[in-house]
Design brief:
Blueprint lengths: L6 E5 L4 H12 L3 E6 L10 E5 L5 H15 L4 E4 L14 H27 L4 E6 L14 H21 L4 E8 L12 H5 L10 H12 L8 E4 L8
Parallel strand pairs: 1-2, 1-4, 2-3, 4-5, 5-6, 6-7
Helix pairs in contact: 1-6, 2-3, 3-4
Length: about 240
């Protein structure tokens, strides 16, 4: 088995940012373990597609185990899976809360734990999570409590994990996007969403993929929350 190529796990890989991240890493000849609820099998022998609920510990175990069985190791984990439910705080239902916690928090926790355990065997690895900038800069009229609580929590966990595993050769970083053109945002809302970025436009999925590639190629960076938000986190 040839393990000279980097092996990258990408969650939420079937569309939007995740699909762009898969494409970007493949351009660099990486092997990919791609997972989401609805992902289809790939014709590319260097992409292993695994469908499942990322919040389920069994899915996390299956993704990591299958990746190792197919490609021999796990070098990078991209925690991209996430959902957003925009409602006033008091209108959130128990189902809303459970859904966001399942994908955003459990989806991060279970697969990160298993990926790092695998990386420890080789004394190297990188975890990079797609989070949000809204946990630091709340915007009037944008309902973001669940996003800030969950993705903001991952920003905090990123720093904790970076310190815990620094001496074991494992780096942990995050990319915090602003408003990005993905299926999450209807085209008719793009102009309004662009106005939140001082740079005057929404981001592209390639902006996030490029930031992830940068962090993955930067061996002296760990514990970093890289804001890719058109200046939104800097102020208005």
């Amino acid at each position: 088995m040839n393990t000279s190529q980097k092996v990258v796990v990408v969650t939420g890989a079937s569309q939007g940012i995740g699909a762009e991240v898969v494409k970007a890493f493949r351009k660099h000849d990486c092997r990919i373990v791609a997972t989401s609820r609805s992902i289809e099998p790939s014709n590319d022998e260097n992409i292993l597609s695994i469908a499942g609920d990322i919040g389920d510990p069994e899915t996390a175990q299956r993704v990591i185990s299958a990746g190792v069985a197919r490609f021999g190791r796990i070098d990078t984990l991209v925690n991209n899976a996430g959902i957003y439910i925009g409602k006033p705080f008091t209108e959130h239902t128990a189902e809303d809360y459970a859904a966001v916690m399942n994908v955003n928090m459990a989806g991060f926790y279970h697969i990160t734990q298993r990926a790092i355990a695998e990386m420890e065997k080789h004394g190297s690895g990188h975890v990079v999570s797609v989070t949000t900038t809204i946990d630091q800069v709340a915007i009037s009229g944008v309902y973001s409590v669940l996003a800030a609580m969950t993705k903001g929590g991952i920003n905090a966990a990123t720093k904790s994990l970076a310190i815990e595993y620094a001496k074991k050769g494992i780096r942990v970083n995050a990319v915090a996007p602003g408003n990005i053109k993905t299926p999450m945002h209807a085209p008719q809302n793009h102009d309004a969403l662009a106005a939140f970025q001082p740079i005057g436009r929404m981001g592209e999925t390639s902006d996030i993929a490029n930031a992830i590639l940068f962090l993955d190629s930067a061996p002296f960076i760990t514990g970093e929350i890289l804001h890719v938000d058109g200046g939104q986190s800097a102020g208005r």
